[in-house]
Structure formats: structure tokens, C-alpha cells
Design goal:
mainly alpha, 7 helices
Amino acid sequence: MGKRRTRCLIDDLPLHIKDQVDAMLADTRITYWEIVEYLDSQGYAISKSAVGRYALRLDKSTQRLLEAQEQTRALVELIKKNPDADYTEGAMQIMAGELTRKMAQAQEEWDEMDLDKAGRLMVALSRSKVYKDKVRQDMQKKIDLAFSGMESDIMAAIKSDAALAAQLKEVLQKAKEKMMADD
């Protein structure tokens, strides 16, 4: 079953008139009544409420585009600063934010996405988070084991120099912390 897109009389206007309406809507000094009068002068009888609904839909689309551009810009900046970083967390945060907003709006959005589908997406997202946390815990255990074994081996080799042993222990601790950092 295809999803129906919301349409109004303004969508069916000739492009040059629709563009003029869009420009008039962008100018906050122009009232909806003035836009209705303009349309009437062009031979199109469209109500003030229809203009208002169209303006709300246009604003919502513009806002979504701006938010998507901002999220993309932030992700690109993150990639530039940390080329070796794990970006799944950022992508998951964007998806969680979008799903949360979709559920919170609960207007026409509910018509566009079945509640079952939104729920399945939230479950999949939470499973991904649990999996990521488990992988992180497993990685931490492996790192702890590896560094513990390495520390024991090195300490046995340099037992005679206590200052060097303390310094090496500090270096190993810093390395372990850097490996688990979220940068």
C-alpha cells in the first residue's frame, strides 16, 4: 500500500504563481489575507486556512531540510577530526533522535509510518545499543587481560629497577585508557 502525500490547491498552481506564494510566505510582513488577495487577483480562489496549512507544511519541510543539513555537517566535521573513530554511535544518535521526534509529533506522521514499524525500529535500535555495549565490555576484558599479562612479563624482566617499573606501569595504564576512550 503506497503512502499518500499531502497536497493542497497551492501545489497545483502554475509554477510561477506557486513560487510567488512561496516568496510571499518567506516575507513575514505579508499576511495570509494578502496572499489570498494576490491569488484571487490571479484567478485562483484559495482560502486563508488553505494558505496557512500550506505555510505550515512548507515550514516543516524547510525545518527538516535544515536539521538534516546540520546533522550531516556535524558528522562530516567529526569524520574530519577523527578519521579512525567509530561513527555508529553518531548514526545511532541521529536515528534515535529522528525516531523519538517522529513518535512525539504523532500527527500526520503516524499516517506515514505504522506504529508497528516505528516500534520495530526502536527495538532494533536498542538491540544495536546492547550489542555495542557487549562488544565494548568484551573488548575491555580482552584489553585488561592482555595488559595484565604484558605487565607481569615486563615487570618480571625489570624487577631490579623499581623506578623504571613504576614508570612502565604508568605508561601501560595510559595506553589502556587511550584504547578505551570514546574520542
